[in-house]
Write a structure and sequence with these properties.
This protein is α/β, with parallel strands linked by helices. It contains 8 helices and 12 strands. The strands form 3 sheets. A 5-stranded parallel sheet has the order 2-1-3-4-5, with helices on both faces. It has a 4-stranded antiparallel sheet with strand order 6-7-8-9, covered by helices on one side. Strands 10-12-11 form a 3-stranded antiparallel sheet. A hairpin with a 2-residue loop joins strand 6 and strand 7. The two termini are 34 Å apart.
């Protein structure tokens, strides 16, 4: 069963969430500060982290950028929309405000774990007329192969793995950094412009929409 790390300095909340998750069959780890969480992450590799913001020592906002390749649900009493937007754009997978309903929290946990469960045998990604091969690194539209640069391929793959969802610009840069470390926020616009142009030329319609101030999505 999936392992979940709870980072919250309120022992009663930490215990309540821990008990609810354990009842669902999850393996639970607990930390009561950001510093303790970092030390614990040197020993364990959880599938999901529930992160409070107002922590002693290393605050949640400071800890979040260090949590790579692990989905994070922020669980905080901070209800300001700017706090939520900033954290979601900064890498959080979800945000739930205290006080919360435990059933809603469990549902959000289940959704994130389902979204991040890999499909090891899936070698092809498909979206409408687009087919992307993870084996051959090729892309075809309506059966006709189109030539993409390495960066364009990485961007399209990420968008096709999150169909119908807005992917923030900073998230795109972070996720494709291993494949294309030279891509910057300024050059990202150019790569996406070229990718949209190639897809439209092949199919006669737009596939990628820009969501102003946030990022891009397949639509």
């Amino acid at each position: 069963m999936a392992g979940i790390l709870i980072v919250d300095d309120d022992a009663s909340i930490n215990d309540m969430i821990s008990e609810a998750l354990a009842d669902e069959g999850y393996t639970v780890h607990k930390a009561y500060s950001g510093t303790e969480a970092l030390m614990l992450l040197e020993q364990i590799s959880p599938d999901l982290i529930l992160l409070d913001l107002m922590l002693p020592g290393l605050a949640g906002e400071e800890l979040l950028p260090r949590l790579k390749d692990i989905p994070v649900i922020v669980v905080s009493a901070k209800a300001d929309i700017n706090d939520k937007v900033g954290l979601l754009l900064g890498g959080a997978a979800d945000y739930i405000t205290k006080p919360f309903n435990i059933q809603e929290l469990l549902a959000r946990v289940s959704v994130q774990l389902r979204k991040n469960t890999p499909a090891p045998d899936k070698k092809l990604l498909s979206y409408q007329e687009i087919t992307l091969s993870l084996d051959t690194h090729t892309v075809s539209v309506s059966g006709h192969e189109i030539r993409l640069t390495r960066t364009e391929f990485a961007i399209l793959k990420l968008l096709m793995m999150n169909p119908g969802q807005v992917v923030a610009k900073l998230t795109i840069l972070d996720k494709i950094s291993m494949d294309t470390p030279d891509c910057t926020e300024d050059s990202l616009k150019i790569h996406i412009h070229n990718l949209r142009k190639k897809l439209k030329a092949a199919a006669g319609k737009e596939y990628i929409s820009a969501v102003w101030g946030i990022g891009f999505m397949l639509s």
